[in-house]
Amino acid sequence: MSIKTINPVSIKFEDLVSEYKERLYWHIRRMVISHEDADDVLQNTFIKVFKNLNTFNGDSQIYTWLYRIATNESLTFIKKRQRTTHLSNEDLQDNLIANLSSDPYFNGDDAQLKLQEAINTLPAKQKQVFIMKYYDELQYNEISEILGTSEGALKANYHHAVKKITDHVTGN
Amino acid sequence: MEIDNNNKEQFNIPSDYFKSFDDRLFTELKFQKLFPNKVDVFTVPKNYFEDVSLKIIEQNKPQGKLISYDFKTFAKAFVALAAVVVLLFYVINPVGTPEDFDSLSVSSIESYLIDQDQLPYYFSDEDLSNIEDNTSIFDQQLDSEEVIYDYIDQDIIETSWTADQ
Q1: H or E element: which one contains A18?
Q2: Would you give the DSSP letter of residue B102?
Q3: Rounded Cα–Cα distance for residues A10 and A3 (Å)
Q4: Domain locations along chain A
Q5: Contact A21/A67 with Cβ under 8 angstroms?
Q6: For residue A2, what pLDDT is reported?
Q7: Chain-chain contact of B42 with A29 (C-beta, under 8 angstroms)
Q8: Least CA distance to A26: which residue of chain B?
Q9: Could you tell me what percent of chain A has a pLDDT over 90?
């Protein structure tokens, strides 16, 4: 039986960790870029999951609920990082991308580095939508449930994100 | 979402759908041309997911809760417990209700006084004499041999019994 259909009362925390840690990790990693930061956020996410598991009442799919927590934790982390470094969002992103080329856990070529640079210039919401649609391959109705945004707004957001990325990479 | 009511088709569409379609399509095609394959550019340390799994589960193991004792709460609990114990004591081992003096039978009082040789201390000679005159072991109210014998000094009975032998 898929964990998605299990009665909320019988969900075991260990099963959630086992089934969803990788999916959540990659979702977080693409938001925060560095492995160390993604590791921190992933653990914070599961701490939150553990503390709130008894409040999950099955009104959404379990992975939707998990994604929501992971997304919020990622955004909280990014905001906190910005506050503690006293850098503007733009400067912060520039630093992250500059570090990425020498990051041992990044194996992309110049084109991929350019793509990551472009993604990190996007506003937070657009970046979220792009990552969830392009990398996580979620459907619009799933993203809508996670972010609480209408599908129409999400489609518009995704389109604008793709346009900005393309323009940034091509130098337009 | 505006609906195009001029459309003769059975289904409706957003009013500017086709206007924005070209833009959306060509943007997507351009992007696909730049990045034809989705590439996973991020990697993780060896055995990361196995290790992090154990770490997460260990971190979130239920810990023993430290219960802080509030003196007021503790005192209330102690008093409540003491009250229960006292109540139980009385339920299990009820104290007999004190008897009214009136409920004591005359025979009981007299027996006590006679047995304890207390009569002379409570009654004057005149009173004792009156008692003798006014009471009788053959009183009609006394219809039990046991009651009669209660009046007679046990020594007298034994003496008479011996004499008869």
Answers
A1: helix A13-32
A2: G
A3: 10
A4: 7-107, 109-172
A5: no
A6: 45
A7: yes
A8: B42
A9: 62
pLDDT per residue of chain B (165 residues) written in tens, 0 to 9 = 555 556 567 888 877 888 888 888 999 999 999 999 998 899 999 999 999 999 999 888 776 655 555 667 777 888 888 888 888 887 776 555 555 556 566 666 666 666 656 555 666 667 666 665 555 544 445 445 555 555 555 555 555 545 554
For residue A51, what are its two tokens?
């503390």
Look up residue B160 and give its amino acid: S
DSSP state of A109: -
What is the percent of chain A where pLDDT is above 70? 94
* C-alpha to C-alpha distance for B135 and B125, rounded to whole angstroms: 15
The Cα A91–Cα A88 span in angstroms is: 5
Helices (H), chain B: 17-34, 48-59, 71-92, 106-115, 119-122, 125-134, 145-151, 154-164
The CATH number for A7-107, chosen from 1.20.200.10, 1.10.8.60, 1.10.1740.10, 1.10.443.10, is: 1.10.1740.10
- Residue B3: strand, helix, or coil: strand
Q: How confident is the model over A115-147, as pLDDT tens digits?
A: 999 999 898 889 999 999 999 999 999 999 999
Cβ–Cβ gap A26/B42 under 8 Å: yes
Chain B residues in contact with A134 by the CB 8 A cut-off are 38
Same topology for domains A7-107 and A109-172, yes or no?
no
Contact yes or no for B27/A162 (Cβ under 8 A): yes
Binary contact (A22, B27; C-beta < 8 A): no
What are the chain B neighbours of A107 within 8 Å (beta carbons)?
41, 43
ipTM above 0.90, yes or no: no
SS3 A34: coil
What letter represents residue A38's amino acid? Answer: A
CA A63 to CA A142: how far, in whole Å? Answer: 10
Mean pLDDT confidence for A89-109? 84
pTM of the model: 0.63
Domain A109-172, CATH number (from 3.20.20.70, 3.30.930.10, 3.30.200.20, 1.10.10.10): 1.10.10.10
